[in-house]
Amino acid sequence: MELVTDGQWWFCLKHMRVEPDAGCPNKDRMGPYASEQEAAGALERAADRNKAWDEADERDD
């Protein structure tokens, strides 16, 4: 079943899935995101950013 919403989307870290606004508490989620697809890529984007920050730190040392 696909959810239809005009609101914000979140990635739930507890359940490892995308949720609409009405979902788990925000403390357990990443977001908000403008679309379901954007929320689905939350973990990948976070990993990419962490890698970039780690590489920048190594260059600064």
TrEMBL record:
Protein name per its UniProtKB record: SPOR domain-containing protein
Region Disordered, residue ranges: 21-61
Ranges annotated as biased composition (Basic and acidic residues): 21-30, 45-54
Domain of life, source organism: Bacteria
